Amino acid sequence: MTRFATSLFSVLIAATMATSAFTDERKPILLWPAGAPGSTARMSEPEKVDRGNGKCNVTNVHNPSVTPFLPNADVATGTAIIIAPGGGHRVLCLGHEGDALAEWFAEHGIAAYVLRYRLAREEGSSYTVDEHAMADTRRAIRTVRAQAEAEANGINPQRIGILGFSAGGELAALAAMDYDEGDSKATDSIERASCRPDFQVLIYPGSSDRFTVKAGMPPAFIALGANDRPDIALGMANLYLKYKEAAVPCELHIYSNAGHGFGFRPDTTSAAGAWPMRLREWLDDSKLLNK
Question: Which residues pair with 65 in a beta bridge?
């Protein structure tokens, strides 16, 4: 074998190993390996994925999971964010409200986990938001924290937040409102972990009339468009005032030229499209990115 051929072979082997590592890194982590409560009979059904024109819409979720996007060790901050995509509880919009943002977080040193939760309003669904989607959300927080506590994976178990878009924003807000510190007597080690998010990120969340505020809640970052529907454009402004009154740290961004669903698109040039940078600055200011 010539020197050139040997070098080329080495490059191809290295590329293959890198691709394999990348693929393994993206392998979904099942929240309940033996099946989620209320879904064991359908846990083997494949998800349905609709791709095209930059979209990736997922339905038929019966075995909820989180897909990790982990930063390189040299840029890792120790902070992790669980991303709950939107879609009206009918579909998961993983394109502009999931995977692309998770990749951006990983590039900026933040571990991201994209949540596939059960859909309460998908046609024919027997699930509910409060019983099933919220169980998936809390289990996702417990799973990431339990791993951080048990493994040397570089994630600080006290810096795990929840981010949600639209319907996923409802889940994120509810998770920050109602949580527990885990069941110390549980045989399942994941159930022994707390499901309290250390911070919450609400991006044009729906159902704001359900949100309540009390002292001691996790700090919040909120972003939305002024042209969104009233329960968001006005509802989140009112929620900010409630956070302020309860002394819960909160940062609010209202973009005057944006509506609903702007999400995250890497090639955007709009002010609303730059909200992840504002979030990263807020995390930095809040001492949540210190290595």
Answer: 30, 116
